[in-house]
């Protein structure tokens, strides 16, 4: 039973990792940029949700879409102000700029909301579901369900809509996409908006489960591990990777030596890079010469 | 009849559903210029990629060069065995000068170790000057003097192709693989290509395997030609015979 | 534009391109040597710190700027170097031997870390180094008997032939000496085959292999050299701190090192020196700024990293060539006056052409 309990909390944690990883992979697939600030965007999403729901008193049902919309706009702003000028620059520069942005977000959050941990009250707080000997918090169920719905929506988006296909084209050859009339810059903005929105969802889902403060963005680094385990160019991989990391972390926390829950993600990451660097769902192959 | 410096037997390679190279076997004699022709998608570049070990041979195919089996050596070992190649889309070191690119090409001749390089000992200095002299010889051969200190990214396409060849020559290859040397060049530049192929073949004594579309260039430089289509060999022989070969014509022009 | 008239191949392999360079650098060395006569101990201490960061920066620059391998966790080597040196000195080894051994240990570990680098490209490697850094930090914190864990450990003072070198002036000279040696060593590497092999990996891996460069070996060597330099800096850093604890070597430290390399100017050793000066000046500038700003903003704990981030972003957008790049532009402006053209330094854009082939 203990195993099953661990499994469920691992899956729930893994979903959060997976959602953030999804945001990474989305941006990477579309622009081949790596966004180190994804975790911090999630953190901002959580704080915006806090502001809407706890400070301004907006009911939960309205607060959620409001947060998502705000963060989507924020994503577009980041793209316009900082990332757009990085089109054509080497990937390392882009990586560094997102690292820099992450620092700025953290400092700004600390300045605006302060550094003491806060919590968001959601209608699901405190409720638990009991199935036999299992106890599952409603919030955990919400995380899992929310992730599943989001994934299905994204899958449909990429598979069936013109915009989704245009995004894939842009990710493979920017110049060619320009030439066939795809509005590459607008696609970038949409990708960042989408990514920020997903991060916001992750933030909303995680906020009731744990307290929020400006440093929760560091979860993003573990989400990186998740993305790599799953395979960096693969959307389903991001979720699967997240689940694996989440479950591993919970088990390491209980059965491993002291403190190993923290490093478990990184050890898993290095293991994966040694054994199968392309990840579970590999998308990288040899450059054709 | 010269002995074969290179032989390939039963080369096979598939990419997913595409059987790019089917049971290709051929031999190349020491000192000859051997051309591979065929319509697009025939598998010509893939054969070159197999020889230079960018791809692994599937099944039981084998390749021998200069007396030893090279089917499973590593990519960097290829250059050490003195097989050099150029690429269809030039793969140069874009941020460096032409001279730097050529000096990098001398890598297989390096005799100094890390520690002596850290202190830049006299033997390192001597090696550097020797490398420079060798690079200058190649620059002379291909008339690249005026481009010596220019960064690759600023050079026109025709010059880049020359630098690719120059860099390959710095290895002092026994076998040179050229991938469409005349593609993208105007008729004047193509004539130059003909001249330096002859020069390389005679002065450097290098055997050349060349993938090419320009039939004129092929007939004027090559001793033997291999025609491919759909991954398989259609015919191997003297260039005139091949050009008049019914199967070859069918492959190019259709039925 | 200065025209250098070349009369022999020797000139091209020399470190100095012309006598003017010899003159100015000579002057710089003399200035550095007599600095203690004019400068206050506080400034000498800061200069020593610049030297230490610069040595670490040389290590990082060789890896990132020249070989093109991004390391987000280089503070790990700083930590390993620092702790190894402190532990070896505590167990009785003399200062120079301990320093060299600590540096060699780092080089060895760097080589091992570099081995799997063969199979990883760009971003994967960056994240692997990040993971490595976390694991090292974690290990140091939990190896209590050896490292003192979270409580930390004191660092013995450096002594040479019985003389205490820990005072500001002798320590400054040690740092200066080691910095000069490191710079010359790096320059030597860069003008030889190893340096060229590293550059070729940055520009085109497939080409490099086709030329006969062994990717795995060269990447491993690049990591080893980089780690060695950084480990050396780590040992000196330990003396500078006086007391080692795991939170002196966090991810923020790694990012600071990268900041130094990026802001200074990627791809040149000058950039390292400029970058080192920059990150040592930054906290001072911040302190001054703090007095200026309203207390609500000035007293924020997250202000320093936030400012780092801002500077990083601004430089990457507006001055990607870094401080050294700006210096070159200004110098060229005066050298070619009034014929200076902005387009001389214009960056070539390279549009994305994915290397992922699915």
Search tags:
heterotrimer, B: 255 residues, alpha/beta, Rossmann fold, 2 domains, 10 strands, 24% strand, globular, C: 358 residues, mainly alpha, two-stranded antiparallel ribbon, 70% helix
Task: Walk me through the structure.
Chain A has helices at 2-31, 38-55, 60-83, 91-113, 138-160, 162-172, 174-179, 184-206, 219-230, 235-255, 260-275; strands at 128-131, 134-137. Chain A contains eleven helices and two strands, in the order ααααββααααααα. By secondary structure, chain B is α/β, with parallel strands linked by helices. In chain B, the strands form two sheets. In chain B, strands 6-7-8-3-9-10 form a six-stranded mixed beta sheet, sandwiched between helices. A four-stranded antiparallel beta sheet of chain B has the order 2-1-4-5, covered by helices on one side. In chain B, strand 4 and strand 5 form a beta hairpin. In chain B, helix 3 (98-105) runs parallel beside helix 6 (157-169) and helix 5 (122-142) packs across helix 6 (157-169). Chain C is mainly α and 358 residues long. In chain C, 45% of the residues are buried. The mean pLDDT of chain C is 85. Chains in contact: A-B, A-C, B-C. At the A-B interface, loops of A face loops of B.
């Amino acid at each position: 039973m203990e195993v099953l309990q661990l499994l469920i909390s691992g899956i729930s944690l893994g979903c959060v990792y997976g959602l953030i990883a999804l945001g990474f992979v989305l941006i990477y697939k579309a622009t081949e940029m790596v966004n180190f600030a994804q975790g911090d965007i999630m953190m901002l999403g959580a704080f915006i949700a806090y502001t809407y729901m706890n400070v301004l008193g907006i009911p939960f049902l309205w607060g959620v879409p409001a947060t998502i919309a705000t963060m989507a706009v924020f994503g577009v702003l980041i793209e316009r102000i900082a990332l757009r000028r990085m089109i054509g620059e080497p990937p390392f520069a882009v990586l560094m700029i997102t690292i820099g942005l992450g620092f700025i977000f953290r400092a700004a959050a600390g300045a605006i909301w302060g550094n003491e941990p806060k919590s968001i009250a959601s209608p699901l707080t405190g409720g638990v579901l009991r199935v036999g000997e299992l106890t599952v918090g409603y919030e955990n169920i919400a995380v899992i369900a929310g992730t599943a719905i989001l994934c299905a929506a994204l899958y449909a988006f990429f598979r069936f809509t013109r915009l989704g296909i245009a995004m894939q084209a842009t990710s493979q050859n920017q110049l060619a996409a320009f030439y066939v009339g795809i509005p590459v810059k607008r696609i970038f903005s949409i990708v960042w908006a989408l990514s920020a929105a997903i991060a916001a969802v992750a933030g909303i889902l995680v906020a009731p489960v744990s307290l929020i403060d400006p440093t929760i963005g560091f979860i993003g680094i573990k989400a990186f591990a998740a993305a790599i385990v799953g395979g960096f160019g693969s959307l389903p991989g991001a979720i699967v990777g997240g689940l694996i990391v989440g479950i591993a972390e919970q088990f390491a926390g209980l059965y491993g030596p002291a403190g190993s829950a923290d490093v478990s993600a990184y050890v898993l990451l290095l293991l994966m890079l040694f054994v199968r660097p392309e990840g579970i769902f590999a998308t990288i192959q040899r450059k054709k010469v | 009849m010269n002995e074969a410096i290179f032989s390939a037997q039963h080369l096979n390679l598939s990419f997913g559903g595409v059987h790019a190279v089917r049971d290709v076997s051929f031999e190349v004699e020491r000192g000859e210029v051997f051309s591979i022709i065929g319509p697009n998608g025939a598998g010509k570049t893939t054969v070159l990629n197999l020889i230079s070990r960018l791809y692994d041979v599937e099944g039981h195919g084998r390749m021998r060069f200069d007396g030893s089996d090279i089917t499973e050596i590593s990519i960097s070992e290829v250059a050490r065995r003195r097989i050099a190649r150029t690429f269809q889309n030039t793969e140069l070191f874009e941020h460096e000068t032409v001279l730097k690119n050529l000096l990098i090409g001398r890598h297989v001749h390096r005799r100094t170790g890390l520690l002596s390089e850290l202190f830049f000992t006299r033997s390192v200095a001597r090696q550097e000057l020797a490398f420079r002299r060798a690079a200058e010889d190649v620059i002379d051969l291909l008339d690249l003097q005026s481009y010596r200190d220019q960064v690759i990214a600023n050079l026109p396409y025709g010059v880049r192709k020359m630098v690719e060849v120059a860099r390959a020559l710095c290895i002092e290859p026994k076998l040179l693989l050229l991938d469409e040397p005349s593609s993208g060049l105007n008729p004047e530049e193509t004539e130059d290509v003909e001249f330096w192929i002859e020069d390389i073949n005679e002065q450097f004594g290098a055997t050349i395997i060349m993938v090419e579309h320009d039939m004129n260039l092929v007939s004027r430089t090559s001793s033997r030609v291999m025609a491919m289509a759909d991954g398989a060999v259609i015919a191997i022989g003297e260039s005139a015979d091949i050009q008049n070969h019914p199967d070859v014509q069918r492959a190019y022009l259709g039925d | 534009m200065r025209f250098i008239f070349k009369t022999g191949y020797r000139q091209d392999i020399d470190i100095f391109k012309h006598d003017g360079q010899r003159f100015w650098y000579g002057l710089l060395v003399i200035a550095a040597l007599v600095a203690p006569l004019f400068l206050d101990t506080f400034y000498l201490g800061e200069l020593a710190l610049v030297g230490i960061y610069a040595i670490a920066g040389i290590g990082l620059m060789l890896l990132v700027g020249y070989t093109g391998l991004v390391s987000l966790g280089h503070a790990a080597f700083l930590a390993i170097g620092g702790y190894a040196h402190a532990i070896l000195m505590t167990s009785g080894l003399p200062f120079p031997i301990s320093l060299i051994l600590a540096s060699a240990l780092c080089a060895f570990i760097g080589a091992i870390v570099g081995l799997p680098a063969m199979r990883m490209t760009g971003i994967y490697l960056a994240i692997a180094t990040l993971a490595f850094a976390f694991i090292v930090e974690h290990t140091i914190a939990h190896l209590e008997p050896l490292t003192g864990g979270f409580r930390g450990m004191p660092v013995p003072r450096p002594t040479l032939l019985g003389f205490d070198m820990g005072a500001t002036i002798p320590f400054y000279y040690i740092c200066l000496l080691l910095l000069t040696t490191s710079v010359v060593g790096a320059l030597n590497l860069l003008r030889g085959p190893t340096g060229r092999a590293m550059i070729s990996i940055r520009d085109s891996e497939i080409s490099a292999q086709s030329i006969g460069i062994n990717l795995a070996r060269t990447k491993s060597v690049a990591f080893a050299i980089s780690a060695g330099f950084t480990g050396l800096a780590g040992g000196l850093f330990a003396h500078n701190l006086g007391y080692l604890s795991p939170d002196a070597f966090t991810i923020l430290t790694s990012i600071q090192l990268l900041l130094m390399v990026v802001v200074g100017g990627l791809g040149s050793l000058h950039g390292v020196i400029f970058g080192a000066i920059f990150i040592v000046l930054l906290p001072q500038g911040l302190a001054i700024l703090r007095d200026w700003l309203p207390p609500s903003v000035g007293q924020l704990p997250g202000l320093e990293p936030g400012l780092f981030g801002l500077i990083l972003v601004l430089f990457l957008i507006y001055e990607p060539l870094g401080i050294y790049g700006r210096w070159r532009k200004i110098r060229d402006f005066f050298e070619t006056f009034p014929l200076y053209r902005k387009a001389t330094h214009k960056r070539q854009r390279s549009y994305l052409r994915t290397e992922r082939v699915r």
